[in-house]
Amino acid sequence: MSLFDFFLKSEVDPRDLKDKTLKVNKTRCPQNHRCPSVRACPVGALTQDKYEAPKIDLKKCVKCGKCLRVCPTGAISFQ
Ligand code: SF4
């Protein structure tokens, strides 16, 4: 099992997040790589143009928390 798969195995309980919104902190994102969180999202809620910070489609997001676990800089969080 890869480290990537290991991190994806643990999920956040969506009931703990019902009043929170997923946000991308652009100042924490170096915007110099392909975002691993885009690949981690099981519903395609994250997209990325070139190496820019990812964008979130909040209508698609199911608040699983998988994207948070693979972002190396902690640029994605629930607030
Ligand atoms: S919380 Fe889950 S569904 Fe929402 S953007 Fe992150 S990986 Fe996708």
UniProtKB/TrEMBL annotation:
User: Keyword Mitochondrion on this protein?
Assistant: no
Which Gene Ontology terms cover its molecular function?
A: 4 iron, 4 sulfur cluster binding; metal ion binding
Q: Which residues form the 4Fe-4S ferredoxin-type domain?
A: 20-51, 52-79
Write down the InterPro entries for this protein, in alphabetical order. Answer: 4Fe4S_Fe-S-bd, 4Fe4S_Fe_S_CS, RnfB_subfamily
Which Pfam families does the record match to this protein? Fer4
Q: Which UniProt keywords apply?
A: 4Fe-4S, Electron transport, Iron, Iron-sulfur, Metal-binding, Transport
Q: Tell me where on the tree of life, at the top rank, the source sits.
A: Bacteria
- From the Swiss-Prot or TrEMBL record, give the protein name: 4Fe-4S binding protein
